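Format is chain and fold; as here:
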Amino acid sequence: MEDSTSFRPTDSIPACLRHLIDSSNVKDKSPHILQADAYEFNNQKVYLVKYQCCDFFDELYDENCNRLCAPSGGYSGKGDGKCPDFVKNAKLIKTVWKSQEE
């Protein structure tokens, strides 16, 4: 049986984000989350959640897991267009979680 122990946490992350990761990576469920990175953006700590496939948005969440936007991913690769300044203005803090599956 596959569970969250097959994934490697690299830092403490908000419980709501951990729940999002765990529920997304249930066996036979798609899309799978591959990585979560912490950024500083607009004077707040945010988390960019990257999905397995290019056709899914990479979603940006605040520390309370409120979805802010999708700065990348999707069919165009440019996200949902709701935070076009993310790539230019966000500062990567570190990867906080990464799947061990390739």
Summary: The first strand starts at residue 7 and ends at 9. Residues 4-99 form one domain.
